[in-house]
Write a structure and sequence with these properties.
Layout lengths: L4 E8 L2 E5 L9 H10 L5 E7 L7 H19 L9 E7 L1 H13 L3 E8 L2 E8 L4 H12 L6 E2 L4
Antiparallel strand pairs: 1-2, 1-3, 4-6, 4-7, 5-6
Length: 155
């Protein structure tokens, strides 16, 4: 069975978008976005899928159905704290890789990407700003100063 309409809205800070996916203008995406704002969510995407069942809801009924469905889902959604992280690039030898990952994990950092080359590994990592100095010191100690963190360009 294929969905008749996949209507959505998202909000990221001051940016937002919505889409009615073929429903009458303003009857799906905007009510979903209104539910996001009413629940004071940020950095969220809501998708409401509708299968047409033969009953004409009218524009008011569609808006209530999409907005109400989104609202109920958001009321039950778990809110997770946003963790600020700074992004860096580094290069290390193969023999240092396991220790780099261990130190990064101990500080709740993430490996965003790895590029294996002939002489070592290039990594993009993300770590809490409060742990940057600690990680830099630990990496310098284990590599005798060869591994340096380079700030990744802002995106």
């Amino acid at each position: 069975m294929n969905a008749t309409h996949n209507c959505w809205a998202w909000k990221l800070g001051g940016q937002y978008r919505s889409n009615d996916d073929g429903e009458p203008g303003g009857t799906a995406g905007r009510p979903i976005l209104a539910a996001i704002e009413a629940q004071e969510f940020d950095q969220v995407v809501v998708l409401v899928i509708r299968w047409y069942g033969g009953i004409q809801l009218g524009t008011g009924g569609l808006a209530r159905a999409y907005g109400g469905g989104a609202n109920k889902c958001l009321q039950q959604a778990e809110r997770l704290p946003l963790i600020q992280r700074a992004s860096f690039h580094l290069e290390c030898s193969f023999s240092e890789l396991a220790l780099v990952k261990l130190r990064l994990g101990e500080l709740n950092g993430l490996v965003e990407s790895e590029n294996f080359m002939a002489n070592g590994v290039q990594m993009s990592i993300a770590i809490g700003p409060e742990h940057t100095d600690t990680l830099q010191r630990q990496l310098a100690d284990l590599s005798r100063g060869r591994i340096l963190l380079h700030a990744a360009p802002e995106q």
